[in-house]
Amino acid sequence: MAAERGGCSLEAVPVPLPPEVRESLAELELELSEGDITQKGYEKKRAKLLARYIPLIQGVDPSLQAENRIPGSSQATAAVSKQQKSRSTNSRDERFRSDVHTEAVQAALAKYKERKMPMPSKRRSVLVHSSVETYTPPDTSSASEDEGSLRRQGRIPSTPFQSHSNVEPWLNRVIQGSSTSSSASSTSSHPGGKPAAASNTATATAAATVLADLMAHAQLDNHSAPPDVTTGLVEHLHHERPQVASVRGIPRGYNSSILETADGVPVNSRVSSKIQQLLNTLKRPKRPPLKEFFVDDFEELLEVQQPDPNQPKPEGGEMTALKGEPLGVVTNWPPSLLAALQRWGTTQPKTPCLTALDTTGKAVYTLTYGKLWSRSLKLAYTLLNKLTSKNEPLLKPGHRVALVFPNSDPVMFMVAFYGCLLADLVPVPIEVPLTRKDAGSQQIGFLLGSCGVTLALTTDVCQKGLPKAQTGEVVTFKGWPRLVWFVIDGKHLAKPAKDWHPQVRDASADIAYIEYKTSKEGSTMGITISHASMLAHCHALTQACGYSEAETLTNVLDFKRDAGLWHGVLTSVMNRMHVVSIPYALMKVNPLSWIQKVCSYKACVAVVKSRDMHWSLLAQRDQRDVNLSSLRMLIVADGANPWSISSCDAFLNVFQSRGLRPEVICPCASSSEALTVAIRRPPDLGGPPPGKAVLSMNCLSYNVIRVDTEEKLSVLTVQDVGQVMPGANVCVVKADGTPYLCKTDEVGEICVNSGATGTAYYGLLGITKNVFETIPVTAAGVPVSDQPFTRTGLLGFIGPDSLVFVVGKLDGLMVVNIRKHNADDVVATALAVEPMKFVYRGRIAVFSVTVLHDDRIVLVAEQRPDASEEDSFQWMSRVLQAIDSIHQVGVYCLALVPANTLPKAPLGGIHISETKQRFLEGALHPCNVLMCPHTCVTNLPKPRQKQPDVGPASMIVGNLVAGKRIAQASGRDVTQLEDNDQARKFLYLADVLQWRAQTTPDHPLFLLLNSKGTVASTASCIQLHKKAERVAAALMEKGRLNVGDHVALVYPPGVDLIATFYGCLYAGCIPITVRPPHPQNLATTLPTVKMIVEVSKSACILTTQGIMKLLKSKEAATAVDIKTWPTILDTDDIPKKKVANIFRPPSPDMLAYLDFSVSTTGILAGVKMSHAATSALCRSVKLQCELYPSRQIAICLDPYCGLGFALWCLCSVYSGHQSILVPPLELESNVSLWLSAVSQYKVRVTFCSYSVMEMCTKGLGTQTDVLRGTAGPDPTTVYVDMRALRHDRVRLVERGSPHSLPLMESGKILPGVKVIIAHTETKGPLGDSHLGEIWVSSPHNATGYYTVYGEEALHADHFSARLSFGDTQTVWARTGYLGFLRRTELTDASGERHDALYVVGSLDETLELRGMRYHPIDIETSVIRAHKSIAECAVFTWTNLLVVVVELEGSEQEALDLVALVTNVVLEEHYLIVGVVVIVDPGVIPINSRGEKQRMHLRDGFLADQLDPIYVAYNM
């Protein structure tokens, strides 16, 4: 089968490959796996190597061959795999047994039926995310500095041509190229060139069977879940390569027939089908549902995870503290480390102390003990005597000094370290800052500041490399204190005076040095180590490791801290050992260098990390002559990492034949606080045989130790880290809360009591007490000892033979629900999914973020530069499955970033806390994201169940009993306010205009401003009247219209619009004002115009010449059918004519005009206004705003509907005041237009919309004076609880309390208006401060909707509603708004207590989710706050999924950062899970003329796939 897949039959390769070719092939595979060569380069070189041995496949495009590659190898090598098997005896490949974990992961994945998940859609430009630098040396492979060993297990290939246990990846290739693969095989040839009939048919049938199987599966599958619809629509995304859905097993073109939405309606939009797929994924219940709490009416209690009664519990007895062997008494043991240095420096000056190597591995310098002593003395003398500031010595004993030395210069570091100790100064070794923006550099600065560091020691070379300011001085790094930089190269040091001698005192409790550590949160602490501890630690290590004088030790670790410092700088001097220091840069170039040095220096001890062993495995084939028999101890410094075991085992497997004895490998465990905790001793030093435990991961997540036999899938194999250190006591305590001793089968935090631990976090008393002064207690609360213990931050237990086992670190612990998971374990699982191919150099960061009161797991990985979208998505979905089946935990967010973009720790690992910080700030810039909140978030409040409805009558009774008044309010009574004579006289607006034209002909009524603020046109009473007459004449003569005909007025805001309105009234026609189409955007604006004209049954259109041309233009024809327009008249130059008689309506109930508007939900509705209602409205506005002819008011509203229309066209004529008209569109070119008009004309009353105010405040900021509201008490603001609003209740809270929402009162109720709050469903009246629909009764209520179909029910419901109980006589109009009335302490003009009306939002707009009512604006406000680049946001629902559309104002790189932030904020503040996040360009969210978001249009556009989004994320 291998050969047939490859496209050439087995007989085609009679030639066995020579060993050197096989060796080169293996090398290539490795280069590819380590990311040192691209896929393309790999294929080129491979083809070259094999060219001589494999006859070419004729007539097939080579790129196709590549496309059909088998994962883990490729066509050509597939054929070779037969011989591979036969030579396994002598091949290195077979001996890398694939790690158990990799097999477990592959098995787990094989069990899973591939979940059909919708693939995110992405705009082309976002795909081209290139990596920062595609090639880097193999440094960065570790997951984080300390977790250096993480990639081991899976990265050790089982064979270079490992055939994967899972078969899917080539299946999809067969489908995709079902024709190509069979054609490829049919043209394959034998050496003789004759087509091989047999092999063709075999391959063709093989392909056919695979397809047939797939079809069968696909058929079966469709009953359970709709097919993946990412096929077939991918062309739109990538043109360059044929594509198939990632392993979904459904051939192309197979999906449209079975695609249905949730309602069973076939759809073909790509978006809706993806969402359907998402819904199907979500439908499958993830876990058994939790027991739910009863939810109190107000508080939505978050679900609390109930403990599982079957969860494993520890059953062992309580552990006792474990005592290490006593520290041996050694004759002539020096009283301090400095005494030892003095002794060797004076008695054995020629002995080598430290050899430094360059990057080629050549020894560049060997420091002798004599040199170390003399140079340290010089430095100590110089520091104390030659550095002054203002004639005072700069340093006094006990001062802290920063040591800034590169990893390539151990010699200078050692001199500086001992020089400080001799001068009684405290060295603080830190990393060399490379740029001002190093990851974590600010925190280091904080540490230096808190330690009071003023001086930094460095080398000449290093100082030259630091970034400089213009003055030539080293820049001050962000967050750092001001430092004096002192170069310690020989020429800068002074020779000590004859009479000067350092005080070499006995070891005391004073601080010797400070080692820094970075916590999980990213803060940096300095751990103080006293002289006494330093000495005791050297003593303990000497005893545990059996160090003796003049031994040679190779050190690969960082010599500035941790085991590298303890073994390679301190204990080595104590024992006069010779250290060969291997710089990190050399390891990058030659990973074998440390082994070669062990060999050439015959070193007895080597100190390494498991990644160093791993790297040397990948490179060891070059060395035939390596011999490791000189080693008596190979100290694995990160042995505490559970995953180091695979590197140790594999290393032993390979090097046992080269002299490495199994007992030499000594893992050890250490922590910054407790120094070395435990180390494995070789048998000759009395160590017991090594232990290994295979533990159940599920039990470990409950802190319980169970050796696992059954479920082989989720186990953790750990090795011991040896015995407790000499002179130490160790116990294991519960990690959180009181430090109770653990049971013997329970995991806890290891604590150490000995003279060799750190003493404090410098300057941090609180946490110092907690960590360095812990007193473990028994279950009864009795202290274990009177001595304090130090917490190590290591999680583990004591196993058989008193061996210490470590299963993880507190820093990497993530507590999800109540189960604990270790970040390292999750990384290992992710790497085992596709260790070789996908993740760039194994760089994965795993951490948790708190969302909605629980830890959520986030996994960030760097992807290979050549990874395709398909690869990424497939890898992500499989990682989710692997982690789910092995750890039984969901991943909240999985993000992929381009290669080399994660922040690096000093030695090339990933800086985890910085990565987390960037994730939370939205600065990670991933190129792929998959969020799974639906699977992870299980603690949402219980959905609200609607209570069986209480009838309206019982509600009233309930309110009465509770002493609550019914919520109703009214404006002043109109009848008492004015002589009704005028009211009768002004019944018809046409009459009013004629009357004004006669009595005050030259009184100015209108003043229209242009964008420059100059007057564009004006109209007095007589001018308006005359123009109206001309229009009326034209309507009758040219338009041949009859009384009662409807006329559409399509004008820009201006005097013409007003004049034609009155012209219609004069002619007895019914006017409808319509916003003209936008010439730049005809496609969307013209259809609305057409619709209003058609729905209103307009017999004629009045407009300007320009718009008339536009309506009939070619461009218009693409948007609407221009042949069906009614008569269009332009009024630009109509003849001056009078009308014989002006029409007078027979009854005030006759229709005056139609008010058409588009609601925010996208519904077009026309409202009928009678003459009586029109004049009543004008009268109420006149009374409320105190309008009379000498007044001037400024209006910045659109004149087409509602209040804007009334103020432009009706009120000025009715009240006689002068209106200054400011078209809102002009504000776009001149923001200050409206407000400057207000100030220039000293206007006391102005009308505007929220969007106008927002535009002005954004544009003008602080320049505006206060604008006050209308007459009556100042509007009050209340704060209501947003959570209660969701339950349709109003609960007032204090300002600033969580979940509070400010609501401003909606001004004063107009005269003659009554308002009541009615229950949305029962239509009964509600009590004070209850949320319901606002109903209004007034003389100017509209009489109904004007629609073509006359939906009577809707009409009656909205315009003549009656309460179901109480006052059932009054006829109300329903406003469609939710709100409440609240009686305030204020009084109004009449001395009554003032009833404030608060509007919460439109009823049509609300979203019903989880049984609760949400207002989109609240969710949108939260989202806009989530990131600085979010310009606007709109939300809507689609089949119960919440869709959030976000406008991105920034680079497209940031698009994917927003997905997690949006999901987080909506979860935190609204307890809702976002289903789809759509990221679009600014201006995509449609906004109507009133500045309201048109969410329904947006929704239609999204579902019809018209938004051209930058990215669409489907949250799982």
Q: Can you put this structure into words, describing what you see?
A:
The longest helix is centred in the first third of the chain and has 28 residues, at 197-224. It contains 47 helices and 57 strands. Helix content is 32%, strand content 20%. Helix 7 packs across helix 27 (823-833) and helix 23 crosses helix 24 (644-655). Strands 4-3-14-13-15-16-17-18-21 form a nine-stranded mixed β-sheet, with helices on both faces. Strands 1-57-56-55-54 form a five-stranded mixed β-sheet, with helices on both faces. Strands 2-22-23-25-26 form a five-stranded antiparallel β-sheet. Strand 50 and strand 51 form a beta hairpin. The chain has 1516 residues and is of the alpha/beta class.
